Hints:
Strand content: 25-35%
Radius of gyration: 18 Å
Order of helices and strands: EHEHHHEEEHEEHEHE
Amino acid sequence: LERARDLDRVIFDKTGTLTGAAVGITGVTLFNGRSREEVLALARALERGSAHPLAEAFRAGAETDEAAGSDAGASATGAETGPDVRDSREITGEGVEGVIDGRRWRLGRREFAQGPASNDNVFPLARAGRASVYLGNDEGLVAAFEIGIPLRAEAPEAIAELRELGVEVSIASGDQPEATAEAARTLGVRHPHSRLTPEDKLW
């Protein structure tokens, strides 16, 4: 605490620090012929025991009106049930994976979810206040979920005060560059860093 007055740079993690709680699934994009209901069930099963801030959007079964139309409220039904997951594990900075019906599924960062497959024709989703989570197996990506995760109400003021004190502020995030850059623009941060693993954030 005594050294804090000598700080000249602060690096904030984005998700869960500058942002608040995930408010729900705001969009679902399908890539491989599977239904919305099937990919949501797979994702919820994988996220069942995850501690990541974005996992709550899947466990709550919360699709917003924007994503699900007039049936949004019905999507919560059965959110805590679904397919059984074997050999489930959470990989820090990447996502979660597990075996469902004999096939290994991954949910998390695009590069992690697609496994050894290549999906050059799949583009990241990025809008202000949103995060992208991908679902895939060894054959490639099957879906992308857009999660509503707004900035904390107090974040702009806190960062403005730091800048007034002459402290350089940066954002470190594992999210896609577009989403991280949008958050940085909103907060007035000039140095956003994206697609970082937890180890990358310790520079």
